[in-house]
Amino acid sequence: MNIVVKSEKRQGLGSNAARRLRAQGFVPAVLYGESLETTSLVLSKKDIVQILRLESGENTIFKVAVEGDAYDAMIKELQVDPASDELLHVDLIRISMDKPIRVTIPVVHRGEPIGVKTEGGFIDFVTREVEVECLPRDIPESLGIDISELHVNQSFKIESMAVPAGVRIISEPATVLVLVSLPHKEEEFPGEKPEGEVVAEEPKEPEVIKKERVEKEEPEK
Question: 39, 117, 142, 186: which one has the fewest Cβ atoms less than 10 Å from its Cβ?
Fold first, then answer.
């Protein structure tokens, strides 16, 4: 997939200028890396949102066009307003397609553990991402692991992962990815309860439902 993100060099600096850009559907950005002088840019927020919605997400490689030149780049860091979820700033890093880079890859789980199906255990997804090193063209969208053979009190560690050719795992091999455990038994009530006694339940706290972040796009003009 060849993605080209158009940009312009940013002229006005400061928070007021940045607010005006964001109100017009743009986002301030910087591009650096590979002996390139740090350059302040203006990007379309819509272009960045579309990249983030791809399976590869922040690991997507694309070209950023700057005044007639085009550089291979990736998203290095995003700044997002925690209250409004508005995209505030983007850091882009220039990459060389023939040099290895380090990226974080999500872990995808396959199968239901034996310890959950037949032994009364529950599953704890301890670590959901791993850091790898590879050439940009070899970056996997995800790394899959089969957890169907896990029994109670067994775990799946990074050292047991299979990775594609050309990909090297950087994360600590002993890191636990998935753990199957038995639920903790509730402490038994000291002494027998008198028959007929009704124990009043404490009022429950209001349930807080977390919503997934929804990327907001500005309406097209």
Answer: 186
CA distance 75 to 91: 6
Distance CA 58, CA 99 (A): 18
Q: Which of 106, 112, 97 is nearest to 132 (CA)?
A: 106
Q: 102-181 has which CATH code? A: 2.170.120.20
Picking from 7, 80, 77, the residue whose alpha carbon sits closest to that of residue 44 is 7
Report the CATH architecture of 4-95: Beta Barrel (2.40)
Q: Which residue has the higher pLDDT, 60 or 212?
A: 60
Alpha-carbon distances of 172 from 77, 157, 168, rounded to whole Å: 23, 9, 12
Q: Stretch 113-137: mean pLDDT, rounded? A: 96
3-state secondary structure of 162: coil
Q: Kindly state the percentage of the chain with pLDDT values over 70.
A: 83
Domain residue limits, the chain: 4-95, 102-181
Asked if residues 113 and 179 have their Cβ atoms less than 8 Å apart, the reply is: no
